[in-house]
Amino acid sequence: MTKHFITLSTTEPNNYVGLLKMRQGDINTQTIQATITANGQLFNFDHLAVFFNAVLPNGNVIRDKVTEVDYINSKLNYVVANSFLQEVAQVTAWFSFENGDKIIDSTKNFQYSVIGGWKECIPQGNYIYELSEIQREIEEIIGNKDFSSLINKIDLLKTDFDYLDDTKASKQDLASAITSQDDKIANIVNGTPKGVYASLDALKSAFPNGTAGIYVTSDNGHWYYWNNGWIDGGIYQSTAIQDDSLSYKKLKAGGRKGCIGANKLVIDFKNKK
């Protein structure tokens, strides 16, 4: 087995690791042993998951989890998977330090060269990592008998579906409310009454299921419009009060002081009015 000893930094702009050459087809024989530093000191990545990442010249990104980690001495030992040797070319790579789905930090890029071997036409892509990662997660779940992570993912999916259902329902309610207001406006947008009826009961008898437009009732002078029922819009087009047009009963109680009405004289001795 070939071991490549390198030092990588999360802060220095370049990582000079020398000439790293790995032969295509040498399965599980190439090992990268890396010491991680930051600002010239050992980098502390305690309890973080570590991944080896590379991007091929065709743009495909490959990832694999590093399982041999020495947190105390900030060292990594990674056996290069076959998917990282799938193309004869110079490949850009880096290590990332992650907490769940969040990347906390990563080393600066470095390069390694893949030289031709006996194996050719390895399919391009990241399928090797994806299958191996799924297998690893299943083995961890079975080995630990801990299904909490799987249950959490299912709960998250359920939450997403519930949110989508609620959002859809809210949009439907909003659309219904807008339609209702549009109908209401359409019913009263023309201020000219379409008819006059003796009373509200007469109007309801004429249009029990409603109709567009506004209608006036002569018994109280109010106008009505339909919105899931006949709605009272108030007095229709009030006019100015003419001289000598009000009866005693139409006056407000406070305005009757000093007036004679209904065979009764009202005198305000307090205010001398």
UniProtKB/TrEMBL annotation:
> Which stretches make up the BppU N-terminal domain?
3-140
One of its Pfam families is: BppU_N
**Top-level taxonomic group:** Bacteria
Instruction: Tell me what this protein is called.
Output: BppU N-terminal domain-containing protein
Q: What organism is recorded for this protein?
A: Lactococcus cremoris subsp. cremoris TIFN6
